[in-house]
């Protein structure tokens, strides 16, 4: 039983799980921001260009049935806009990160060259 508890504790404390949980919480908090940008800024711009705020009214009739292709079209446009906003946020975030220190030590090639030379000198 102690091994099971220790294994569970190690599993929960593993960095990947904690990072994933934090990412999930942040994504949950970030989703309304992205939806607000899409609904309140970008879709009105599309409405000004196209003439309507969404495409849900688009469709055609076949006999007594109505084929509404506008709703899936609206959802696809929303998805593409959300993906674009997320891409731009990640791109802006990556620009703010400092690059890794290039002078942090010898490169892998330099280390292998030193090892080769040391073996050759023997």
How would you briefly describe this protein structure?
By secondary structure, this protein is mainly alpha-helical.
Structure description:
This protein is mainly alpha-helical and 122 residues long. The protein has four helices and two strands. The longest helix is centred in the first third of the chain and has 36 residues, at 15-50. The mean pLDDT is 82.
Report the structural category.
Answer: mainly alpha
Q: How large a portion of the residues is in β-strands, by DSSP E? A: under 5%
Number of strands: 2
Helix content: over 70%
Q: Which sequence of SSEs, written as H and E, runs from N to C? A: HHEEHH
Q: Span between N and C termini?
A: 54 Å
List the SSEs and their pairings.
Layout: H1 2-13, H2 15-50, E1 60-62, E2 65-67, H3 70-96, H4 108-121
Helix pairs in contact: 2-3
Features:
122 residues; mainly alpha; two-stranded antiparallel ribbon; 4 helices; 73% helix
